[in-house]
Amino acid sequence: DAGITQSPRHKVTETGTPVTLRCHQTENHRYMYWYRQDPGHGLRLIHYSYGVKDTDKGEVSDGYSVSRSKTEDFLLTLESATSSQTSVYFCAISESERQAPNGYTFGSGTRLTVV
Amino acid sequence: GQQVMQIPQYQHVQEGEDFTTYCNSSTTLSNIQWYKQRPGGHPVFLIQLVKSGEVKKQKRLTFQFGEAKKNSSLHITATQTTDVGTYFCAGPGGNQFYFGTGTSLTVIP
After folding, report:
1. Rounded distance, CA A40 to CA B107, Å?
2. What integer best gives the mean pLDDT of chain B?
């Protein structure tokens, strides 16, 4: 969707290497989220942010860290990638938190393969 | 934590047949959202339901929110090949939305 971009779109990395995924938005939305999508599990929240430098853990946060130094950018870092982190990663943004009447807007995703 | 269960996981239908996916929560939800994800794509927001017993329609899609606000359904009338994809429900819990595992719809021409 216009207003949110993820980079890179695809990445292959080796086990044990650090990886950073970037999410950039131009909507000035306060809330940003990182999800991973795996077959049989749907979308699971990794971390989210409710403002600059304000972040919190989701249900599958182990092995991941995030940073948000500017409203428009939300970075997801895998400090030491493992094969279990092979997945499709989606960033999402929203104007509000639990109500989000216009829903979440998702980026196009990053397909990460850890070999 | 909050769990949103969705059934069925997969559904194959002949073009023109109807399709329904169901979403159930273990707790009362303040609202529920539905998303569609085309193959190879990203989830796209369809609708949000807030009121008990609410029914909303979008062309051939009918969304319902249960009276107890613990379940919801999405019904597609006379499916078309453009309906192919995975449909997710999502309910709020804590500071996030919990997504169901999705129903993957295949439409056979």
Report:
1. 20
2. 94
